[in-house]
Amino acid sequence: MSAPPFALLYTREAEKVIEDLRSKQQYAAKLKKVRKALRLLEQAGPRHPGLHSHDYQSIPGPDGATLWESYVENKTPSAWRIWWIYGPGDGRITVVTIGPHP
Q: Residues 61, 67, 70, CA angle at the centre, nearest 5°?
């Protein structure tokens, strides 16, 4: 782990979610929230209080890495989250997926 800013990398799944949000006008508000959360994750880091980042213990990350969860929304039904891991390498975060909290 290193200090912010971080370089964000995206899995194909995360890229697809963002593209799906971008392609439909009805998701414009959700896309704006996702972009804001990603910007905070990148520039301020996971410790930013608005992200409420914590390790997600229900599912292991890729290759056994610790999977982390950060808030896109809070106190709303099916609130959206960003799931991510540190790496590869120092100063990088890989966004695994983005979507509603299960």
A: 145
